[in-house]
Design goal:
The structure is a homotrimer. Chain A is an alpha/beta fold. The first copy, chain A, has eleven helices and nine strands. In chain A, strands 7-6-5-8-9 form a five-stranded parallel sheet. A four-stranded parallel sheet of chain A has the order 2-1-3-4, with helices on both faces. Chain A is globular, with a radius of gyration of 19 Å. Chains in contact: A-B, A-C, B-C. Chains A, B, C: Pfam families: OTCace, OTCace_N.
């Protein structure tokens, strides 16, 4: 039995197979409409995350399975002092696979150690969010036709954004990747990401301050939200949050196939005017994210052989 | 693609067809048990409304479909600053149709403007609640055999009650309707309802203070809750809330076929002793409401041709 | 139509039949995979109880049915002043059977009196929790092969624990049962349990203070949580909570077939080291609880004749 805690739990080959499978699920939904008949997904969400939860649930429903679970810590047994380890053992009596979201880093790992069913980390604090990365990769591969030889700009809060660190870790495994890291000095990628991920892989990167300077060179622009809750004080937040807003003007500097991604939810870091631009790909990410979660659950449930 | 924001989005003929369809669904549930196989309803409830939500969900389940969504703003992405427009675009990646409840007037309309899937307004603040009106009409038509030539009493909070305004708007389109509006002076129907709805339609109405004076003349008595949260101060609430309580004594003044409706939940405006009276129709409304929502979703999903 | 409010609503013969049915459901899941197609369970949970709710929901999903409902009072119509009686009448328009959890003793009984569908008490305050007792009995019968001629130790908070009182009431109906009641003096079984349950049945029992003294004599050890919220003050809680912790050392005093049960959630009253002991049966209880709920709903829905 296998759990997914980090995007790196999957090899490049496994990721490729997942993307192939997800593409087949998108193209032939009826083929998979009953592969999970009688199976159950437990969505154990210790903090709310509507989009991620609905994505997992939709993916399981697409395969004919059912859903049990909870949406927030207040409706979980955690309020009665139950440990994550006990909760997953209980859920394992009911369900066949689990997606766990938790505000504390490492909680899904604790669950995986004792779980009788496969556990997928659906986000643990500032740590990992592997299925977001799967959605990102699938979107890039579908729109650009490849995952190698790309110049990828990542913009916004690069210090605290877990999706950023996961994406960098996943992309350095492909050849010809080059990053332009766009952020205020205070929110730069942490040094451990440089020392443990970028440098060992030999992936070139540059750090820039202004989004305008980077845009013309990019194949992909990955925007992130400046999360208010990550800031130490209100002043810093107010000062920095509007630095990196993508609007129609900035989009004019970009090439005709520079796709814009964003893990969502966005607040105001991408102007709604950009939504109509054919290069805006952030809702496509949601679409592909569902199919990647479907492919991942299908694989972890070892349903391939039954087909 | 079509959205339903107000009961008036449907013509009288469309309403009639919906009621015919709902009656067929009630009579022949098996015929519709799989028409939504593989389809999903998103219940996006930014404020709790158990009855309305369960009604939509049951209606979709009756047709073989599935449910995703959230039950309150605290478990939605709204807490992270996501707009209603973005949330519906995300939900549209997962689901095939959406029922949206929101405390702010007009929010479902904002959603409908960008939504890739049909949106049904499941109540927006004090504004509209079209599926409640569909439930009301279906109940009246089933019990009285017609929607024209009726004297309809509406009692309680006529100022703030959105179900009241929606019902009046829908009924003035039928011939021979006459209203008796029963309320304290402070909670009378707003003047715009008179000037924009009742007078243009030429529908006669009278305003009375005492429920006892109206009851003997009525074919239908529509009771409403005096919602505490609508009052400016506690004193006003305490003074007025018990003015308009329907009990066994008052029911003795009514004709043998004067049915009592109420949008629920009730607090104490209808005595529980009235529940046993065969003229009490408020739980029948819940029953018919489910079938009207089922008929509405079936129609908006354009499933008719597949049959 | 029948409701289940207390474990004693079922005769010993009915309990035996339920356990036989549950065992068949566990052994032959496919036989029951569609017996509830088109049916709905309403889980009306006025206070959160993830484990019990997920157990009921899984049981209904195992039979092909669907779920509607709410997870806490804040997302119910109770916040708008709706009575339990009205809520069950509304739910009865949508669903075919109901599991109700409520913080107030007797609330499910109030619901049952007016309900158009079978109501199962899923826990009402400190009062009853019949499906927990069904899970307990099924676990004991499966592991020990019998429900008679057993020495049963019950340890922890015997004063406030509703599962303890329910279990005692159920077990005194079998022959050859003997209890050892292990608790601090302050948390002993209430006198009404002795006078109304144990003594009339002629069931022998002794009360002891130290878990070590009891363990060697036991066939079953039923551990319970010392619920912080039941204590009058923090000092009492702190002083007593660690008195009755089961660990590897104490397990060495027990016989090779002394199974340990616990209604869960546990906090620290059973050391996690005991989890690996083959005599630890508390997660098996969760497993059997699901099948007992499945058997109970199947029976209350009178599906037996359709087979």
């Amino acid at each position: 039995m296998r759990h997914i805690m980090s995007p790196l739990d999957l090899t490049v080959e496994e990721m490729d197979r997942l993307m192939d499978l997800a593409a087949d699920m998108e193209a032939n939904p009826k083929k998979y409409a009953h592969v999970c008949d009688g199976l159950k997904l437990a969505t154990l969400f210790y903090e709310p995350s509507t989009r991620t939860r609905m994505s997992f649930e939709s993916a399981m429903l697409n395969m004919g399975g059912s859903i049990i679970g909870f949406h927030s810590a207040s409706s979980s047994s955690a309020t009665k002092g139950e440990s994550v380890a006990d909760t997953i053992r209980v859920a394992g009596c009911f369900a066949d696979i689990c997606a766990m979201r938790h505000p504390k880093e490492g909680a899904p790992m604790v669950a995986a150690e004792v779980s009788p069913i496969p556990v997928i980390n659906a986000g643990d604090g500032g740590h990992q969010h592997p299925t977001q990365t799967l959605a990102d990769l699938m979107t890039i591969r579908t729109l650009k036709g490849r995952l190698d030889h790309l110049t990828v700009g990542i913009c916004g809060d690069l210090k605290f954004g877990r999706t950023v660190h996961s994406l960098i870790s996943a992309l350095v495994r492909y050849t010809g990747i080059r990053f332009i890291l766009i952020s205020p000095e205070e929110l730069r990628v942490p040094s451990y990401v440089k020392e443990e991920v970028l440098n060992p892989a030999g992936t070139p990167y540059e750090e820039v301050i202004r989004l305008e300077d980077a845009i013309p060179k990019l194949d992909i622009l990955y925007m992130t939200r400046v999360q208010k809750e990550r800031f130490f004080n209100e002043d810093d937040y107010v000062r920095m949050k509007d630095f990196y807003i993508l609007d129609e003007e900035k989009m004019k500097l970009a090439g005709p196939e520079m796709y814009v991604l964003h893990p969502l939810p966005r607040v105001n870091e991408i102007s709604v005017q950009v939504d109509k631009d054919p290069r805006a790909a952030y809702f496509k990410q949601v679409h592909y994210g569902m199919y990647m979660r479907e492919a991942l659950m299908y694989t972890l449930l070892e349903l391939g052989e039954d087909q």
